[in-house]
Design goal:
Chain lengths: ~120, ~110
């Protein structure tokens, strides 16, 4: 069964750091671009970042550029999102998502999400 | 960035109703549009991609149409499981942007 499972969310103070992970299973992970999408409480969806299948091309939303780093390990079928200099407006549920095809792309598979709360 | 505008923001409907949601793009996105369903506390679920292609396993009462800047999402006969929030998303160019969502609620 195809599956994505995020972890690493939690409460962090403004200016702090957090590292999210996403474990993939049930599909050929190295063959797909992957993305992070977030959703602030009670708000809509916001695309955060995308990484190509091989990890050599990475795109970021302007709102996180220079603060977040997206990486992948195709040998372990995992994604990582390193989030630094966190702000209150980064508070959201973070979903990892499998690109449907190509890039940019629709998202055909989503994880259950992990909550990140930035607050003092 | 391409802005996506959905209407209405909220829609009150009854089981069996035909439901239509509109999504407009601030510039042409060809047919690079997806529709998602999201229920409270759950991840979004892809329903439609490339404006009109039904994702595998999605009931045929869901459909999409349009190209360029105007797109329509239709539920032909609303079922109890369909009360949810629906989002459009353009993936013509980075950043992929979403509409603000349309909540389909019980009338």
């Amino acid at each position: 069964e195809v599956h994505l499972l995020e972890s690493g969310g939690g409460l962090v103070q403004p200016g702090g750091s957090l590292r999210l992970s996403c474990a993939a299973s049930g599909f050929t992970f190295s063959g797909y671009a992957m993305s992070w999408v977030r959703q602030a409480p009670g708000k809509g969806l916001e695309w955060v970042s995308e990484i190509s299948a091989g990890g050599d091309s990475i795109y970021y939303a302007d709102s996180v550029k220079g603060r977040f780093t997206f990486s992948r390990d195709n040998s372990k079928n995992t994604l990582n999102l390193q989030m630094n200099s966190l702000r209150a407006e980064d508070t959201a549920v973070y979903y990892c998502a499998k690109n449907y095809f190509g890039a940019p792309s629709a998202f055909g598979l989503w994880g259950q999400g992990t909550m990140v709360t930035v607050s003092s | 960035d391409i802005q996506m505008t959905q209407s209405p923001s909220t829609l009150s409907a009854s089981v069996g109703d035909r439901v239509t949601i509109t999504c407009r793009a601030s510039q042409s996105i060809s047919s690079w549009l997806a529709w998602y369903q999201q229920k409270p506390g759950k991840a979004p679920k892809l329903l439609i991609y490339k404006a009109s292609y039904l994702e595998s396993g999605v009931p045929s009462r869901f459909s999409g149409s349009g190209s360029g800047t105007e797109f329509i999402f239709t539920i032909s006969s609303l079922q109890p499981d369909d009360f949810a929030t629906y989002y459009c998303q353009q993936y013509n160019s980075y950043p992929g942007t979403f509409g603000q969502g349309t909540k389909v609620e019980v009338k």
